[in-house]
Amino acid sequence: MKLYYAPASPYARKVLILLHETNQLDDVQIQDVAAKPTATPPELQASNPLGKIPALERGEGPTLYDSRVICEYLDQRANGGFYAGGWDSKILEATGDGIMDAALMMTYEKNLRPTDKQWPQWQDAQLGKVLSACKALNGRWMGHLQGSTDIGHVAVACALAYVDFRHPDAGWRTGNDALAAWFAEFESRPSFAATKPA
User: What pLDDT score was predicted for residue 35?
Assistant: First the structure.
């Protein structure tokens, strides 16, 4: 198998962490690609018509894309149990991915759009989504996050790490002490440390 990824992508990091956690890293060739919203490398475009990462080429069947699809496939392949939490795990995965989506939109607005065309209200709205999700995690989901590690844990941790990486002044820890403490502990996992973007 071949995984197209970029080190700074939180979605690709989810997949890499799952590969580490399920001992499948040796089964996959990791292909670093410089994918941008305005320019897709030809090899990635040929593999994924959307031109997005991550994408997983397999020996059988079509290329898988979207981190949720890839992670569920890899979990089933290894019988890893990362989706054993059922809908709760998937809700947490969707929440983590939603934080990533909003934070990525903030990154694009800040780094790709010309300064004179940037829209502060858009930035504020995306940050509001990040902070609202963190408040919900802290208030509703800590019991799950403090349980056995599943895909929800991985997605939320990747999302929070990406916010720290690209938007260190976002302030998501304020008022979310339980979530902040959980994340500080999760950061020490070997799979998480091994996939930290430079």
Answer: 67
Give CA–CA dist 191/21, Å, rounded.
6
What is the residue-averaged pLDDT of the chain?
A: 93
Topology, domain 2-78:
Glutaredoxin (3.40.30)
CATH assignment of 87-190? 1.20.1050.10
Secondary structure (DSSP) of 50-101: T--S-EEE-SSSSPEESHHHHHHHHHHHHT--TTTTTHHHHHHHHHHHHHHH
Whether the Cβ atoms of residue 37 and residue 64 lie closer than 8 Å to each other:
no
Inter-residue contact 162 to 103 (CB < 8 Å): yes
Report strand pairing: 2-5 vs 29-32: parallel
**Is it the case that residue 97 has pLDDT exceeding 90?**
yes
pLDDT of 117-162, one tens digit each? 878 898 999 999 999 999 999 999 999 999 999 999 999 999 999 9
DSSP 27: G
